[in-house]
Design goal:
This protein has helices at 4-16, 19-26, 30-44, 60-87, 100-117, 130-138, 196-204, 223-233, 241-245, 280-293; strands at 49-50, 57-58, 92-98, 121-127, 144-148, 157-169, 178-179, 237-240, 253-254, 256-257, 264-273, 303-305. It has three domains: 4-87, Arc Repressor Mutant, subunit A, CATH 1.10.10.10; 94-159 and 273-295, Periplasmic binding protein-like II (D-Maltodextrin-Binding Protein, domain 2, 3-Layer(aba) Sandwich); 164-266, 3-Layer(aba) Sandwich (D-Maltodextrin-Binding Protein, domain 2). The protein contains ten helices and twelve strands. Helix 5 (100-117) links the parallel strand 3 (92-98) and strand 4 (121-127). The chain starts with a helix and ends with a strand. The chain is an alpha/beta fold.
Length: 309
């Protein structure tokens, strides 16, 4: 039968899709990893990886094998945890992934709260884009994702954290009511592709990707950098309200409305995790602390929730 060690090699190789990177991650030589993968395939009687493709791809049989391996390894991990609990050596670890446009304000506020509240828990935090978060949940490299919703997938449990208004940063504006049609003649400064706030901005402001100017442009991963580009070069960008309210003035920031309605854009921030994880109770406590620290907006009917897909 396939050993636990071989299962770990198979799962890592399915994630890295390259023997060299997988062997480095497993702390073995590439020939050792290759030999163990081949032995596992011989025992099971079918190829797990399509070696004719680069990067490596799973065969249909391999997809089923990897799913089963992950479940077995998860159960094995729980046995090790139970053993450590009986010896008094156990310290739980929660791995949290957060998109950059939320982590920049949420983590500085929540980290000391989590440290104080969960002293016996190891909390590890990574910044990842939305698509990377979903992939990391799938391969179980994180336990909890915090991102912009909604995410409709029955395999994940989704809990609303808070809704936040998205404001326009446009210091040149001097009027009383800012609508999207005013922005049509101005240059939009966007985050790079993969950031959900980019998609939300393009949807609400009706920015056409094909007509977007490319002869002079900067696409970055930092909202602060985009605001500086607006300061120096003019134009506008959209900013989540929580991003600036704790450490910057609100000067130059305006509520923005669709010309046909009285709603201004907002995004729903959600927590996403597997409802089957044994860490469920701790994860829910972590989520409640975020909900307490970030009260939800009032008068929801005044806001239009913008999807990130």
């Amino acid at each position: 039968m396939v050993s636990i060690q071989q299962m770990q090699y198979l799962v890592v190789l399915s994630e890295e899709k390259q023997f060299q990177r997988a062997s480095e991650r497993c702390f073995v030589t590439q020939p050792t990893l290759s030999m163990q993968v081949k032995k596992a395939e011989e025992v099971l009687g079918f190829p797990i990886f399509d070696r004719s493709s680069f990067p490596l791809e799973l065969t249909p049989f391999g997809e089923g094998v990897i799913q089963i391996c992950r479940e077995i390894l998860d159960q094995t991990n729980q046995l090790e945890i139970l053993q450590k609990q009986m010896k008094g050596e156990f310290s739980e670890r929660i791995r949290i992934g957060v998109i950059p446009t939320i982590s920049c304000y949420l983590i500085p506020k929540m980290f000391p709260i989590w440290q104080s509240k969960f002293q016996k828990i190891q909390i590890q935090i990574r910044e990842l884009k939305s698509s990377e978060l979903l992939e990391s949940l799938e391969n179980k490299s994180i336990d909890l994702a915090i991102l912009a919703g909604p995410v409709v997938d029955s395999k994940w449990r989704s809990i609303p954290l808070f809704t936040e208004e998205i404001k326009a940063y446009i210091p040149s504006f001097k009027g009383e009511r800012l609508t999207t049609d005013f922005l049509d003649s101005l240059h939009p400064w966007l985050l790079n592709k993969g950031n959900c706030l980019r998609t939300q901005m393009m949807q609400f402001c009706q920015i056409d990707e094909e007509e977007f100017p490319n002869h002079w442009n900067y696409e970055g991963g930092s909202v602060d950098m985009l605001m500086k580009m607006v300061d120096i070069n003019g134009g506008y960008t959209l900013v989540p309200k929580h991003h600036i309210e704790d450490h910057q003035t609100m000067e130059g920031l305006y509520s923005i409305f669709s010309p046909l309605g009285n709603q201004n854009p907002a995004r729903s921030v959600i927590a996403l995790f597997s409802g089957r994880t044994y860490k469920k109770n701790i994860i829910e406590e972590i989520i409640r602390e975020v909900q307490h620290a970030f009260p939800d907006i009032q008068q929801r009917e005044n806001y239009e929730i913008i999807n990130w897909k």
